[in-house]
Amino acid sequence: MAAEIPRSVLRRFAREQRANAVQTEAIIWRAVRDRRCEGAKFHRQAPIGNFIVGFFCFAQRLIVEIDGPSHEIAEQQTKDRERDAWLCGQGYRILRLPNELVIASTELAVARIRAALRG
């Protein structure tokens, strides 16, 4: 992994991302906040290592990412694989959901999160 990014920088960036959530992130946040999904406590835009993860359940070590069109670009896919490999190496599980799924079938997206929480 690259040089350590100062924690204060990551926290500020995470706060900005929370304030500027995209539609699909807002949809998922409404579904998982306040222990609404399997009683699991989720955080959003949380710093882990040098990364900011979309949604994070510490107790289950589960990260949920919502992937928009930028994740279809080859360069971004390479970055995502490297990031996921590092996070998995730290003991985290990652569930990636495409934007289209969240918009077209929020119920199915949440069902996938529930299934991941159950193991």
Description:
This protein is an alpha+beta fold and 119 residues long. The chain has a single domain, classed as Endonuclease, Chain A (3-Layer(aba) Sandwich), CATH 3.40.960. It is built from 5 helices and 4 strands; from the N terminus they run ααβββαβαα. It has helices at residues 7-19, 23-32, 74-89, 99-104, 106-118; strands at residues 43-48, 51-57, 62-67, 93-98.
Q: Topology of this structure?
A:
Layout: H1 7-19, H2 23-32, E1 43-48, E2 51-57, E3 62-67, H3 74-89, E4 93-98, H4 99-104, H5 106-118
Parallel strand pairs: 3-4
Antiparallel strand pairs: 1-2, 2-3
- Spatially, the strands of the biggest sheet line up as 1-2-3-4
CATH topology: Endonuclease, Chain A
Average pLDDT metric = 90
* Domains (count): 1
User: How many angstroms separate the termini?
Assistant: 28 Å
Radius of gyration: 14 Å
What general form does the structure show?
A: globular
List how many beta strands DSSP finds: 4
Q: Structural class, from secondary structure content?
A: alpha+beta
Q: What's the tally of helices?
A: 5
In CATH's first tier, which class applies? Answer: Alpha Beta
> Low-confidence runs (pLDDT<50, min 5 residues)?
none
Helix content: 40-55%
The topology string of helices and strands comes to HHEEEHEHH
Main β-sheet, in a few words?
4 strands, mixed
Q: Which CATH architecture is right?
A: 3-Layer(aba) Sandwich
Please indicate the percent range of residues in DSSP E strands (runs of 2 or more).
15-25%
CATH superfamily: VSR Endonuclease
